[in-house]
# Entry
Amino acid sequence: MKNTERDYSHIKGWGIDADPLDVPAYPMKRRTENDNKGMIWERPAQQPAMVEVLHSNERPGLSAVFGTPNPPAGLSGKIRRFAFRYSESMIRHWLLLLIADRVNMIEGVHQDIQSGHVPDFFSELGGKSELKYNKPGLIRKIALGSLITIVAVAWLGRKRR
Amino acid sequence: MLAMNYRGPYRVRLDRNKPMPEIEHSSDAIVRVTRSCICGSDLHLYHGLVPDTRVGTTFGHEFIGVVEEIGDAVQNLKVGDNVLVPFNIACGKCVFCEQQLYGNCHESNPEATAVGGIFGYSHTAGGFDGGQAEYVRVPYADVGPTVIPADMDHDNAVLLTDVFPTGYQAAEMGGIKPGDTVVVFGAGPVGIMAAKSAWLFGAGRVIVIDHLEYRLEFVKNFAQCEVYNFRSLGDVVLFLKKTTDWLGADVCIDAVGCEAAGDAMQTITGRKLMLQSGSATALHWAINSVKKGGIVSIVGVYGPTGNLIPIGNVVNKGITIRANQASVKRLLPKLIDHIQSGRVDPKQIITHRIPLEEVSDAYHIFSAKLDNCIKPILIPPSARK
# Structure
């Protein structure tokens, strides 16, 4: 016990939850009779899998519920399926998923264009708010981007010559 | 319906024609969203740091709304109920839910065993769409969703879905004893609530560390704590040692997670090159500035691979590390009481109310810390009438 002689009356509720018997200090395990018995609980009804759902190989099958949006598809889907051959403990599992995410980003742009929608990158990147609240920053970014582009083009042009 | 739509790192837009969610399981409900927040951890998705974040995903795990439809097996909710929906998707039956570890449910996420299902938080957290939309599918509707008390301000209700419980559990896991010195790293929404909650456990001194002056100014007034800007401290750990009689703090809370600033090596290897699961600067500082035998409580979000932290110091100092996703459902009765009794008023942290239609700008404002943003909430058109 220290510092408690100070006056904390200006702090509403000071110490109100300090009862050590009422602080479960999660995540310490509060053992129940069903601990150490495996997956014996009465499982909720299984959600039917109407789309492809990948599952970790660290579990025997699907959880009772799951999300169904954006099932794996295209090249990114192939990479994701491959990633799920490896357990969550393997770094290649996660790196493959990150690679799939970047491929998926390109697929997204391609799909947009195929469906007649040209992505508005300026708006999607929050350009309007940058213009409103950070105009000097936006100008700096545009200037830096332009400079990098000019240097890159000049350097590539020199190599060709 | 209108919904936020992720297109890739730093790119989100409003989808005007997202299909309405449907009942896919007898325990589901469909909720019409009336408020949804952007969480600091949504920014990890937005920045492309969370593996298996698929293009087309709708984010949002902090939301409230009105029950529009229920599955055949739902008994505790009825159409028209105003509900707050914990960010954890929990079955209530598995051995982890039985232990009230609702953030660790084993029946809500097929894609990863290390994390339970979370709304709108990538396929690594179950592949569910989130609440930054007009409507959302809510599984296990009898377990998580809680009817909002009639006298509760809905701005406070939406902050009970994650921010307040996470900050409170950070303090709870710290095992704070009366008189303890508690250091909170991060003056974001969760850090602010952790600092406020530390007093409820009888902390003797609460110190918050960040580098954004406007947030430090806010938390100093909101949580009546000491604040320091690490940019002006030089060596943060040395400063904390000096100000705690050279021994260190009793409890350190990492309320930042994987996008911490303050250390060039961590920033480059974690956030830029992604050679580790983000930048672990705050956790590094927490471990090194807690006293021997002290407790480090982690609620900041990290990725699933690994991070550079001084684990040798954890051993040599005999530190206890406690960490988890907040068990929102377990904490709700206590936190509702704290709000209703006036001890805590979380809604003060809301700085921006933005129409759902302007979701791209909302993300950028929050991510780039523009316009002194602390907590933005998105309001769908139907809730603005």
